[in-house]
Amino acid sequence: MKLHPNHSLLKKASLAIIGLMLLFAACKPKDPDCYQSTLVLNFSQFKTRYLDTNTVKIDSFTTIIDTIQRITDSVMPAPEMLVLDEDSAYRVSGKEVIKLPCPFNPAKDSIRYRFRADTSGTQYDTLTFFYTSTPHFINNNCGYTYYYNLDRVASTNHVLDSSYIISPALTDDNTNKAQNANVIFYFKRKP
C-alpha cells in the first residue's frame, strides 16, 4: 500500500494544531482573587493642641498663625476588637499596630465592636458602624461579594475622643491596599 505524498504533511499539520490547542489551553487567563470588602481603621493620638502666636512676614503683610493641631499615629501595644450582638464570636487583634481590619455583616445595616487599645487594660469603648450593603458580582468562580458604604460611626468616649470618616466606600479596590484607612479614631489626650 502506497501512502499519499501529502500524508506526512497532513500528519505534521495535525500535530501542530494539537500543539497550539494545548498551548492556548495552558494560557487561560487567571481569574481575579475573591476579595471580601473590609473596613480599615486607623488609630491616632492627639499630641498637642495649642495656640501659636508666631507671626510670619510675607511681602510686608503680617500673618498670625492662630491654631495648629498636631496629630501623630499611636502604636497600640495589643489592640483588640470583639464583635457584639452577633451569633458567632469574632475577634480582631494585633500587636504594636495602628490599623485594624473590621469586617461587616451584609445581612444587617450596623455592627458593634468592643474596642481596647491594650488587652492588659480595663478601659474599652464600643464602636458602632452604620452602613448600607450592595451585592457585587466578581466572577463565576467567586460569585458575589458585598460592597459597603459607611453612613456614620458612633462610639463611647472612655478611651477614644472622636472619629473621622476618610473614605465611606468599602470595595475590594480600596481594601486591598492596607495602607489606606477608611476611618480614623483619635484617642483622648493622656493626662
TrEMBL record:
This is Lipoprotein. InterPro entries: DUF6452 (IPR045607). It comes from Taibaiella lutea. It comes from the Bacteria.
